[in-house]
Amino acid sequence: MMQHQEGIIRSFICFGEMLWDLLPEGASPGGAPMNVAYHLHRQGMQVTPVSRIGQDELGKQLVAFLRSKEVAITSVQIDTVHETGKVYAHMDNRQDVRYEIVAPVAWDFISWDREFEHLMAATAGGYFIFGSLAVRHDVSRETLAQALPRAGIRVLDINLRAPHYTRERLEWLLSQCDILKLNETELQLLGSWYLPEAAPREVVISLSERFQIPEVIVTMGSEGALLYRDGQWHRQAAFPVTVVDTIGSGDAFLAGYLSQRNLGRPAEQCLSYAAALGALVATFPGACPDYDPADIDSLLATVK
Fold first, then answer.
1. What letter would DSSP give residue 288?
2. What's the pTM?
3. Residues β-bridged to residue 20
4. Strand 215-219 vs strand 225-229: parallel, antiparallel, or unpaired?
5. DSSP strand E in the chain: where?
6. CB-CB neighbours of 20 under 10 Å
7. Residue 90, CA distances (Å) to 105, 131, 157 in order
8. Could you tell me if 172 and 180 are in contact, meaning their C-beta atoms sit under 8 angstroms apart?
C-alpha cells in the first residue's frame, strides 16, 4: 500500500486498454491507460504501458505511434487471435462524447507473462495506474489481480463505460486503490449505491472511509476539480479555454496531477497543474496531441 516518502521519484506503469478512437474526422490513438502514459512521458516521467494489441495493421500503427513519441513498447503484448481494440466515438457536442467499445479485443487478454513479472519487480514502489474497462474480461482481470499485490502506489482511474462494468468488480477495484480519480457522473453513480441523498463531498468521504482510500480526486468539467487528501479538501477552478473536444482531457488531468505529486509538489500545485494540462489538451482534437509543455505554465500564469 501507499507510503509517503519525500524526495523519491517513482516510475509508472499504466495497465489496460490500448486502442483506436474512431472519430468522425478520422482515427486517433487512445485508451485511457495509453493516454495517461503518453502525457506522463510528456511531463518527463519514466512510464511503461502494459497492454495487448492484435497482430494486425491497427496494432502496427499503434506501435509506430508509441515509437514516434518515444513511449516504451516493451510490455505491449501481441495477440495472434484477437484484433486490436477499436472504439467508435460519437460526438453529441463539443463537451459530450458517447463511446461504442468493440469486444472482445486483444486488450481483454493481457497475460501475466515473464516480461510483466520482471517489470513489476523492477518498478517496485512505483505508481500503478489501472481502470475498470480492462477488467470487463476475466483474463485481464486475473492478470491485474496478480499485479496489484506487487504494486507500490495503486491509482484507480475508474473510467466507467456502460455496460462494461459490474458493481462487484467495481467494489473489488475500489478496495485495491490508494488514489481514486473519477468524474462527477461516476461519483453520482457510486453515491446512489451507498448514500443516495448525500452531497458530493459526503460521498467522497464515505468512499474514502469504506474502501480505505486516502486520496480521492473528482473532476467536474467546467466546474473544476476537487481533491480529498489525507482528510483535507482542496478545490481548483477550471481554466477558461476554447474547447475543441474533451477526449483524453481527464487522462491528461490525471497525468498532470501524478507527475507533480511524484515531484513532491503541494496538493494545491498538483491540482492546478492537472487542471491546466487537462484544459490544454481540450484545445486540441484527439487524446494525445502534440503540445508544448511550456503552454501549461502559460495557462497557470493566467490565474496568478
1. S
2. 0.94
3. 29, 86
4. antiparallel
5. 12-15, 19-23, 26-30, 47-54, 76-79, 85-91, 97-101, 127-130, 153-157, 179-183, 215-219, 225-229, 232-236
6. 24
7. 20, 21, 22
8. no
User: What are the boundaries of each domain within the chain?
Assistant: 12-18+32-51+110-301
- Condensed to tens digits (0 to 9), the pLDDT of residues 31-64 reads 999 999 999 999 999 999 999 999 999 999 999 9
Pick one of 1.20.1600.10, 3.30.70.2190, 3.60.15.10, 3.40.1190.20 as the CATH number of 12-18+32-51+110-301: 3.40.1190.20
Kindly give the residue spans of alpha helices, DSSP state H, lying in 90-216. Answer: 114-122, 138-147, 167-174, 184-194, 200-211
Write the burial class of residue 105 (CB in 10 Å: 0-12 exposed, 13-18 middle, 19+ buried): buried
Per residue in 247-278, is it b (16+ CB within 10 Å) or e — as a string? Answer: bbbbbbbbbbbbbbbbeeeebebbbbbbbbbb
What would the pLDDT profile of 75-95 be if each residue is shown by its tens digit?
A: 999 999 999 999 997 776 655
CA separation for the pair 51, 240 (Å, rounded)? 34
Q: Residue 236: which of 261, 271, 190, 282 has the closest Cα?
A: 271
**φ and ψ at residue 97, rounded to 5 degrees:** -125, 135
Report pLDDT digits (tens) over 260-294: 999 999 999 999 999 999 999 999 988 899 999 89
Helix/strand/coil percentages in the chain, nearest 5 = 40, 20, 35
- Partnered with residue 227 across adjacent β-strands are 217, 234
Please give the grid coordinates belonging to residue 62: 499503434
